[in-house]
């Protein structure tokens, strides 16, 4: 119900021809003579979480900053709901929420003051601003910290406020630049659970990270950047190596299982099977269908209840 | 400007005010420091107004190595002088007091002074270039004005005593109650007759101006940091127009500056009687122009500053320089003429002239208008330079 309400507030549906909310079209960016992004095309849909992975310097942050509108592409274009930024910068900005890698907040102000400020900058005021503040603080569990100065928060909480500031105007597209960097395992898990919930509520989320493994459990797709280009394997599945790729199972659980239960199941898993859990989203990775089936059976036997699940080959999960 | 931009302007200004109030250092620096320094400068340079009953008294040590009735009478006169605060000590104590800068001058009457000076032939010997009796003035090496002051008083008292000694037989018995046969009348002359110079007024005007410039610098450095942070990129991503961002920054800086002027002048009025004796409208307009100047300085620092520490150091040197040359520390008459002429190329000199005019000189609005226009012109010029440069920088960054 809440997701429907949020979607209704996001304004008229002006998606691209294939239904994508955010589209990079042959985007190239140079820093001097160095081409940091080279002809990248990528489309993201509502309710989809795309992980943009790659090593440091591969162009992830630059690609996000072009979509955020803080720099212009040297070639190509970025469309949000079919709209280019230069056509109407304000309307474009209202559709995009950008959470920069370094905390883009005022340490001296409280959580609420920061969010209120960025909300006003996005044209919100009065009741609507108040409602949006309540919603976003609820979504990211910031209610108890609203009067705390941002400078006194831990890294994990700061990152939540950083994301909340990008969400306060209820954008269609959420761009997250390395949101989990510098966080401990527990904070990272909680934050990823929050991000996947935002996706579930209908937001198109692009998450740039150099640690692809940690987001694989929550991402619907993984796009790999290398030296400013999307990986060849991701562009053309027919060029995959001949050996059979590992199998992946993504599951949505009814309730998060206790930690001891996961430890127990992990001890029984066959060699080569990986199990990850972020909030209620589970990921299993196995080399063969047999070992994947065995792991699934173990989980079911211990009473882990699935709402839904799907299996894919890992190469298919990577997409240009 | 669209309605949305007014809302953004308001949001940015609220944010900057919140940041200012959350920074205790900036608060102390902007409000308390100028008040303390202005009070201290006013106190240091305060002199009783000319013509007042209680004139200033020069503290001196009096070393008497001579004896006899002539010397005793001379010492009595020196101790009774209303312009000296003489303390009889021996030579060693006097030298110690001078070395420790407790007194600026010690008057030494050496042995045999009276015998030589009281001789009738002294004046004739003096006219022939003969050896004269001496009164020695030991003095602190850094205090020349006080030596001249003491020398004048000593000359007057000794001459009186010599006259009495040589002419008393021809004078009536009550001659000692005679006063000087003439009066020296000091009359202050300024552009506005009847107004007295008040050192507190000068120090409050000067320190307020200097610390307005310092506040402008602090605001500029804050903006410099902000422009390099992700908050700035975030604001730009939110399509906040550059002109709105800059206008908000300038208005907030000027607004805090106005508060600073109000606070320092209110304190000066309550504590030391610093009053706006001229045009109140002129004072208000001049204050607004000066606050705009502080905002322009801030944007200039943000536009041309490179590393923060570097920008701070250069700004401090420049602000102290223009403050000194503009007569913000000491009254302009103490500066050489060529410096005063050079200072006309500085906004601080015009601002200080304007503040002096509307405070202790009691000038009318029209009299202070040239100063207001000059400060405004400087402010607009600096604003134009800063905004132009920031536009170029933003274009490059985008």
From TrEMBL, chain B:
It is a multi-pass membrane protein. One of its GO terms (cellular component) is plasma membrane. Keywords: Cell membrane, Membrane, Transmembrane, Transmembrane helix. Its main location: membrane. The chain crosses the membrane at residues 200-224, 245-271, 283-304, 316-335, 365-387. One of its GO terms (molecular function) is ABC-type transporter activity. It comes from the Bacteria. Gene3D superfamilies: abc type-2 transporter like domain (3.40.1710.10). Coiled coil: none annotated. InterPro entries: ABC-2_transporter_component, ABC2_TM. It is found in: Cell membrane. Residues 25-387 form the ABC-2 type transporter transmembrane domain. This is ABC transporter permease. It comes from Thermogemmata fonticola.
């Amino acid at each position: 119900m809440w997701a429907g309400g949020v979607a209704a507030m996001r304004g008229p549906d002006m998606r691209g021809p294939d239904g994508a909310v955010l589209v990079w079209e042959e985007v190239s960016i140079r820093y001097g003579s160095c081409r940091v992004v080279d002809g990248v095309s990528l489309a993201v849909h509502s309710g989809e979480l795309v992980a943009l992975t790659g090593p440091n310097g591969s162009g992830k942050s630059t690609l996000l900053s072009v979509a955020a509108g803080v720099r212009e592409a040297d070639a190509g274009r970025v469309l949000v709901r079919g709209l280019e930024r230069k056509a109407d910068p304000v309307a474009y900005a209202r559709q995009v929420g950008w959470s920069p890698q370094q905390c883009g907040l005022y340490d001296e102000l409280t959580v609420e003051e920061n969010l209120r400020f960025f909300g006003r900058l996005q044209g919100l005021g009065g009741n609507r601003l108040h409602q949006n503040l309540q919603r976003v603080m609820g979504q990211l569990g910031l209610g108890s910290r609203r009067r705390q100065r941002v400078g006194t928060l831990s890294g994990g909480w700061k990152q939540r406020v950083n994301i909340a500031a990008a969400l306060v105007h209820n954008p269609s597209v959420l761009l997250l630049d390395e949101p989990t960097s510098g966080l401990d395992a527990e904070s990272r898990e909680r934050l990823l659970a929050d991000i996947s919930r935002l996706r579930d509520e209908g937001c198109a989320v692009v998450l740039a990270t150099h640690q692809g493994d940690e987001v694989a459990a929550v991402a619907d797709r993984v796009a790999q950047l290398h030296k400013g280009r999307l990986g060849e394997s991701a562009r053309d599945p027919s060029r995959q190596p001949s050996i059979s790729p590992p199998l992946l199972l993504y599951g949505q659980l009814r309730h998060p299982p206790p930690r001891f239960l996961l430890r127990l199941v992990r001890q029984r898993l066959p060699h080569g099977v990986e199990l990850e859990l972020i909030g209620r989203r589970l990921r299993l990775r196995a080399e063969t269908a047999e070992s994947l089936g065995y792991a699934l059976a173990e989980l079911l036997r211990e009473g882990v209840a699935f709402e839904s699940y799907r299996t894919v080959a890992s190469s298919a999960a990577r997409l240009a | 400007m669209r309605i949305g931009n007014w809302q953004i302007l308001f949001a940015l200004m609220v944010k900057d005010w919140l940041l200012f109030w959350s920074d205790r250092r900036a608060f102390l620096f902007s409000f308390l420091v100028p008040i303390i320094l202005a009070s201290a400068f006013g106190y240091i340079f305060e002199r009783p107004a000319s013509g007042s009953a209680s004139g200033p008294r020069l503290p001196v040590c009096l070393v008497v190595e001579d004896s006899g009735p002539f010397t005793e009478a001379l010492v009595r006169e020196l101790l009774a002088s209303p312009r000296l605060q003489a303390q009889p000590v021996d030579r060693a104590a006097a030298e110690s007091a001078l070395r420790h800068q407790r007194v600026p001058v010690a008057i030494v009457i050496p042995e045999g002074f009276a015998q030589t000076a009281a001789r009738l032939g002294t004046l004739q010997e003096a006219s022939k270039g003969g050896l004269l009796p001496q009164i020695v003035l030991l003095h602190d090496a850094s205090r020349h004005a006080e030596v001249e002051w003491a020398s004048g008083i000593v000359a007057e008292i000794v001459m009186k005593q010599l006259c009495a000694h040589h002419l008393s037989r021809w004078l009536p018995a009550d001659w000692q109650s005679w006063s000087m046969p003439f009066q020296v009348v000091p009359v202050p002359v300024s552009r506005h007759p009847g107004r007295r110079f008040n050192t507190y007024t000068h120090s409050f005007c000067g320190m307020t101006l200097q610390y307005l410039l310092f506040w402008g610098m602090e605001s500029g450095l804050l903006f410099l940091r902000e422009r390099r942070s992700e908050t700035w990129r975030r604001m730009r991503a939110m399509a906040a127009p550059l002109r709105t961002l800059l206008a908000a920054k300038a208005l907030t800086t000027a607004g805090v500056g106005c508060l600073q002027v109000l606070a320092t002048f209110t304190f000066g009025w309550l504590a030391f009687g610093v009053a706006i004796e001229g045009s109140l409208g002129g004072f208000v307009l001049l204050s607004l122009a000066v606050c705009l100047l502080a905002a322009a300085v801030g944007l200039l620092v943000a536009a041309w500053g490179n590393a923060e520490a570097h920008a701070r150091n250069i700004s401090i040197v420049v602000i102290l320089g223009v403050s000194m040359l503009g007569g913000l520390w000491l009254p302009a008459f103490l500066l050489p003429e060529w410096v005063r002429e050079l200072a006309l190329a500085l906004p601080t000199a015009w601002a200080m002239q304007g503040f002096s005019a509307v405070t202790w000189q009691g000038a009318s609005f029209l009299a202070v208008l040239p100063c207001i226009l000059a400060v405004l012109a400087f402010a607009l010029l600096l604003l134009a330079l800063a905004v132009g440069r920031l536009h170029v920088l933003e274009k490059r960054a985008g």
